[in-house]
Each structure stands twice: as C-alpha cells, then as structure tokens.
Write a structure and sequence with these properties.
There is one protein chain. By secondary structure, this protein is mainly beta. The chain has one helix and 15 strands. Strands 1, 3, 6, 8, 10, 11, 14 and 15 form an eight-stranded antiparallel beta sheet that branches. The protein has a five-stranded antiparallel beta sheet with strand order 4-5-9-13-12, with no helix packed on it. Strands 2-7 form a two-stranded antiparallel sheet. The protein starts with a helix and ends in a 7-residue tail after the last strand.
C-alpha cells in the first residue's frame, strides 16, 4: 500500500473516531430536560407572610374563565389572579378562597386543575408584616397540598415558586401551572421538624 493511501486511511479513521465521540454528547445535551420553574422540596416547614389585620372569615370569589382568559379578584385579601388567553382549552369555573386568619394563604379550585399557560398570582403587601422589609426580605410563592399544616404562621410546602416584588405598588407576584393551596412565604427561612433553620436553592437569611 502506498504512503498516500495509508495517510488517507488514517484520516478516515480519525474522522470516524472524532465524529463517533462528539455526536452522542451533542444529542444528549439536546435531550436534557429544562429544570422546573420552582424549587421542589420535600415537606419543608416555612414561614408565611402575615397580615396586619387578620381576616375574620374566609373570603371567596368565582369566575368562569374561557379560552380568552380572565381575572379573579378578592379585594378583601388583596389578591388578583390573571389567566392569560390559552390558559384553558374550554370554559371552566374557578374559585379562590382567602383563608381566615393572619397568614396570606389561599385555596384554589378545582383542585388539581392544570393550565396550558402560566397563571399570574399577585398579592398586595401593603397590609402585611413585610411591607417595611421589601428591600431585604426574600419572598416566594409556596405550594401546600395539605391545609392542616397551615398553623401558627407556618405551613409545610412541597414546592417554592420564585416571586417578583413591585416596590412602587407594594405587591408581589408569582406564576402557577395548577390549582391547589398557595401561600406568600418568606423564602430561605425553612425549618425542619427539629427546629433547625435550613435553606432551599442556596437562599438563606
């Protein structure tokens, strides 16, 4: 075999090896699923934002949301829920209930309803205990599947949702993809059942 033929054979073999090593890596990267928008936690006890004036009773509001979207409000609790167009594929009657007491916590129904587009939850903070701490406190939406864990200003959450804070209008907002129980929580100040303070997602006070 001539020298030129050997060189051509070697170049072909090298191309095959390099191509065989790189393609699977690229394919694997493309298949890697995106991380969820919230931080999943396994039943963590966390502090709930407290109202300056506790609600003396539950306050509820209902609305029929169609494919064009809509809004649900509970003025007594400072809650506004905005459904974008395309959030549901057919009209559905939804209900939100602000739970009585000091904790900023809600029940959304039908329980387990999943939306095709993210629904925006906005909470007025002007009459809460964190209104003077908005430059320093970290807030989040907290998903709690069990209302019996909502007691003493804390709740057991199984998912936290990143929140934005509007300093001009003194309100916070976060988005959800399904209905259940949600609360405005102080992100980072999580306590285990032993009372030890821990952090989630690297956030701590």
């Amino acid at each position: 075999m001539s020298l030129n033929a050997l060189r051509a054979l070697a170049a072909t073999a090298l191309f095959a090896v390099v191509g065989g090593c790189s393609d699977p890596v690229a394919s694997s990267a493309r298949r890697t699923p995106a991380p969820p928008p919230g931080d999943l936690v396994s039943g963590i006890l966390t502090s709930v934002v407290q109202r300056t004036f506790p609600l003396s009773q539950d306050y509820s509001a209902s609305a029929t949301i169609g494919t064009g979207g809509g809004t649900l409000r509970i003025p007594e609790a400072g809650l506004v829920v905005t459904f974008p167009a395309g959030a549901v594929s057919a009209p559905v009657t939804v209900r939100a209930t602000a739970l009585a007491g000091s904790s900023v916590a809600y029940r959304f129904e039908p329980h387990g309803l999943v939306f095709q587009r993210e629904v925006a939850v906005a909470q007025d903070l002007s009459l809460t205990g964190v209104v003077n701490q908005l430059l320093t406190v970290q807030l989040a939406g907290g998903y709690f599947p069990d209302e019996s864990t909502l007691t003493g200003g804390t709740v057991v959450v199984t998912e936290t949702l990143p929140a934005t804070v509007d300093l001009l209008h003194l309100r916070m907002g976060f988005t959800i993809r399904h209905f259940s129980g949600y609360a405005a929580t102080r992100k980072g100040g999580y306590m285990s059942s032993s009372g030890n303070r821990t952090g989630v997602g690297g956030s701590q006070f």
